[in-house]
Amino acid sequence: MTDAYSSLADWFEYLNEDCDYEKWSQYLYERLRSLGVTSGRGLDIGCGSGAFTRAFAAFGFDMTGYDSSEQMLQKAERLGAGGKVRYVLSDARKLRVAGGRADFALCVNDCLNYIPPQDVPAFFARTANCLRKGGAFLFDVSSPYKLREIVGSNVFCEDREEVAYLWFNQCKEDRVEMDITLFVKGTDGRFDRSDEHHTQYIHEGDFLADAAEKAGFRVCSREGAFGEAADRTRLNFLCVRS
């Protein structure tokens, strides 16, 4: 059994291509502009292999991506993004910035679901300390509905030509325990197996809003995926540091 996102790092964006990273990044960019941030330095917390980091660098921001998975950051470096991106190996709960406070921070695509509830207030406080006054903070979680009713105690699988996976979930009271088995085709045609364990915590929207406000953020909006009011699978928060 390997750490989360060890073996998955090379395949994560490929297996999640239906997420529509281009549309997702454009949504985040438009929301950021609505909060008055149009240039400057950005932090991508839990950046993974850098999909959003690269997108915001392309929008013209000076980006720093943070992730606790060395393998994810190695993949991000291989994918490249030009001169306005740097990557830092760091637990989100130990976030630090150099060279002054940033203009905005992202924490999207379930990063926050990996942080236990008892650590969320301190994480928000640390993030606030990394941002200038008036800086924006956009974060999201997979909703309680999604984790309990869709991911829940269910099994998912996919078989592609070069990679296949089995994903077994067990829903607990406050979290979902996930076991993922990955099969990757080698040059000799044989498949190598690896196993990872993930834990995603269920965070209620009111809890997150309260913790963000106590950390010094003003919650400007709460909305579903891509801003859709009817969506129940994702909770997006648009915040400004007071």
Describe what this molecule looks like in 3D:
Helices cover 26% and strands 35% of the residues. By secondary structure, it is of the alpha/beta class. The protein folds into 2 domains: 8-143 and 203-241, Vaccinia Virus protein VP39 (Rossmann fold, 3-Layer(aba) Sandwich); 146-200, Single Sheet (N-terminal domain of TfIIb). The strands form 2 sheets. Strands 3-2-1-4-5-11-10 form a 7-stranded mixed β-sheet, sandwiched between helices. Strands 6-7-8-9 form a 4-stranded antiparallel β-sheet, with helices on one face. The protein is globular and about 55 Å long.
Structure summarized in a few sentences:
The chain is α/β, with parallel strands linked by helices and 242 residues long.
